[in-house]
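User: Teach me something about this protein's shape.
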Amino acid sequence: MLRPILISGLEVTVMDARDVNDFLAGIKMAVMATINSDGSPHLSPNWYYYDGEQLFFVTTKERKKFYNLKRDQRISVCVYEPPLASDYVVVQGAAIIDDLVPTSELWGTARLVVERYVNADDVDAYIERWKTEPRILVTITADKTYTRPGY
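Assistant: First, the predicted structure itself:
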């Protein structure tokens, strides 16, 4: 339940675990942060699916984030409420990159992602287009979760 707390004399509202789950289950944008080989951050916006425990992303083997995660599995993901982004959840953990996922599992998860963002009539065509690309599944289990105001 959202609850007000005092921080430096200001009343702010924070999320509890149920609020975090509800927030992540909503249709929002996720920004994935990975680490480049020179140590600098790499950010990319992504669609995602949340099953109540893990975040799932589908990307291609041609993206910078894929190469970064193959080298260093540390990841941070900020899920925010557009357009202002004043409400957000940050998930940190290690990404599991599975480019050997059985096709049915990859496309089943891809469908769950796409269904959240695309009109129902367009989902099949979207999946068929994705199937022409070297897609992989990225799974993230949170080691740490931050919410607004960052606690």
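Now, about its shape. The chain has a mean pLDDT of 86. The chain has one domain: 3-147. If you'd like, I can walk through any region in more detail.
User: That's plenty for now, thanks!
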